[in-house]
Specification:
17% strand, Aspartate Aminotransferase, domain 1, Aspartate Aminotransferase, domain 2, 406 residues, four-stranded antiparallel β-sheet, alpha/beta
Amino acid sequence: MYDVDTVRADFPILSREVNGKPLVYLDNGASAQKPQVVIDAVTRGYAEEYANVHRGLHYLSNLATEKYEGVREIIARFLGAKDAEEIVYTTGTTMGINLVAYGWAMPNLEPGDEIVLSVMEHHANIVPWHFLRERQGVVIKWVDVDSTGYLDPQKVVDAIGPRTKLVAVTQLSNVLGTVVDVKTICDGARAKGVPVLVDGSQATVHMPVNVEDIGCDFYAITGHKLYGPSASGAIWMRRARMDEMRPFMGGGDMIREVHKDAITWNDPPMKFEAGTPGIVQQIGLGVALEYMMGLGMDNIAAHEKALRDYARTRLDGLNWLSVQGTTPNKAAIFSFTMQGAGHAHDISTILDKKGVAVRAGHHCAGPLMDFLGVTATCRASFGLYNTTAEVDALVDALELAHDLFG
């Protein structure tokens, strides 16, 4: 039985007030709050166990290294990966995608080669490919969603042409909440010999994920959305793709030998991890993932599905609210605009006075905003600790905002 009250008790920040009101935190799509076990792990890591990893033979260095390296196995288990050595540590999805762009795509793509993207992509899965467009003539091909926010996987597959070298697609839209059938995309792309990168920043928060079943080549995650520390994350890369890559950054750990006239690289994943890493951050991420798996990813998904359905019903009852993204298969993420409101920021400010924290802006999804014909939206994004009572608090705050806007 999933007891949300017990879960909420694990997150100390949820007991505080904002502007004299109980905090209703609905900005999980941007960054999630941290359970006490993660806070404790980070505190202990700095207060009792800190040393640099891979460098020393003393007790603290060995302890830190053991804990730090042990997180690869946790991430592999979380993602359904068979080999922990296919897990490369990053500071988050943005770094993971840039690693692929610089380490794999840049040396392998030529002018006129294509990368297929959906219009729903976050800027982190757009800007690195624009670098390749500007610097070496790579072509970006865009696939639109329909009026409900649904992305037809076959349209993505059909967009693959003889010059396509990569498909890069989100598994779950951070704006619309749309769940993308990435397995069908990967099956179709593999039949055409084209690798697929999946942005898993949002999907891994809300549902079980198995990269082996999906069949992708790269899968990036970010820790701060997974109830872990900022500047933690990872990317799973299929071994064959690792072998095709050159290092993205140079420095310590990613080399075997350095001489005046030659260097030799370390083996993956170390080949792609230069310099002193975010040791405590990654340890905290491992604790966060263990926490989520302890709750059960299926249980989290079921809880959030119930929240989604309840929120959808309540928001549909507000005929002056326009919700973007109405496809049935979506997560508990709702972006909306309000009739009579000047800007999404104005709505967000009023909601904040009621203690309700939502996001307002373009959500790092400029092409999607253009497609939707809006400059900005408000976004309420739910997590594993949110409740139906908080849905009601959101609706009450929206009704107040509507009344104020007249």
